[in-house]
């Protein structure tokens, strides 16, 4: 009978990488077998080896790399503007209940509206390219950052706030010295979630708008030519790899910057 007081041992980092590699290999093998078995026409589902070879080949294609750069530029601009808007707004709504109550109905009205539904209107009002993509990315990326900031403020230790208040610190000083540092791990998680949403919006907007440049436009144009499925899937692989790299970098940065928060949570549980 196992000792129930012994905490479960987690996987080491090489173990996690090995397990992830096994999952990727299994998916690759299943896709390769399915593509070569003839169950589905190869023009619709090429073997994984063909898609991978084309994705590697695109790495040397200057036109394709230009499209990737356009998408990443829109992603970065949209995410940075969303952070600049959502963090201060979240601090305001989380710190001042009267303002939160006043704008709550507007926020709850706007939040469910999908950004893709705004693409036709944005195209008419803002044209094409970054001028249309960036506002849509900002709109979709603001929500996870805003609500994570507000949630982080609710998780601040009230004793620490009361202590500073007792010593005569102002509301702004308490916010900067206690509330903001305590909420920072939650804000970082919101930014990580928003980064994925921003990439989805960048690629999706380019595909649905039907004009301009970008990775999404490359995928959309490839889908209109005969035997373009390999290019469509190779572009999709690139989008997935970019998203994986972004998420991995942000997770590593989050773990390093807020190691104390993880230890605090583990101790609390």
List keywords for this structure.
269 residues, disordered N terminus, 78% helix, globular, mainly alpha
| Main sheet characteristics | none
The chain-level mean pLDDT equals 85
Proportion in β-strands: under 5%
Q: Indicate the structural class.
A: mainly alpha
Number of helices: 11
Overall, the morphology is globular
**Helical proportion, percent range:** over 70%
Pfam families: BPD_transp_1 (PF00528)
Subcellular location: Cell membrane
Main location: membrane
Membrane topology: Multi-pass membrane protein
Task: Describe the overall structure.
The chain has 269 residues and is an all-alpha fold. The protein contains eleven helices and no strands. α3 runs antiparallel to α8, α5 crosses α6 and α8 runs parallel beside α9. The radius of gyration is 23 Å and the shape is globular.
Please give a quick description of this structure.
This protein is mostly helical.
How would you summarize the topology of this molecule?
Layout: H1 13-36, H2 48-58, H3 62-95, H4 97-110, H5 119-126, H6 130-154, H7 158-166, H8 171-209, H9 215-222, H10 229-257, H11 259-268
Helix pairs in contact: 2-10, 3-4, 3-6, 3-8, 3-9, 5-6, 6-8, 7-8, 8-9, 8-10, 9-10
């Amino acid at each position: 009978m196992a000792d129930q007081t012994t905490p479960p041992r987690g996987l080491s980092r090489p173990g996690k990488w090995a397990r992830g590699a096994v999952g990727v290999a299994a998916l690759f093998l299943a896709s390769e077998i399915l593509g070569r078995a003839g169950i589905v026409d190869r023009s619709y589902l090429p073997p994984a080896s063909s898609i991978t070879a084309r994705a590697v080949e695109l790495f040397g294609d200057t036109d394709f790399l230009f499209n990737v750069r356009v998408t990443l530029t829109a992603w970065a601009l949209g995410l940075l503007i969303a952070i600049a808007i959502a963090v201060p707004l979240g601090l305001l709504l989380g710190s001042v209940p009267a303002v939160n109550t006043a704008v709550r109905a507007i926020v709850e009205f706007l939040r469910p509206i999908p950004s893709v539904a705004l693409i036709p209107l944005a195209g008419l009002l803002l044209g094409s390219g970054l001028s249309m993509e960036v506002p849509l990315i900002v709109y979709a990326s603001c929500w996870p950052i805003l609500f994570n900031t507000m949630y982080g403020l609710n998780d601040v230790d009230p004793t620490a706030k009361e202590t500073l208040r007792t010593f005569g610190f102002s509301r702004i000083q308490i916010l900067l010295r206690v509330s903001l540092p305590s909420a920072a791990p939650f804000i970082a998680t919101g930014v990580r979630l928003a980064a994925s949403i921003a990439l989805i919006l960048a690629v999706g907007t380019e595909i649905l708008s039907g004009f301009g440049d970008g990775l999404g436009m490359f995928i959309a144009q490839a889908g209109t030519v005969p035997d373009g499925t390999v290019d469509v899937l190779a572009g999709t692989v690139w989008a997935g790899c970019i998203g994986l790299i972004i998420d991995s970098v942000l997770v590593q940065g989050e773990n390093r910057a807020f190691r104390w928060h993880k230890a605090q949570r583990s101790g609390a549980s």
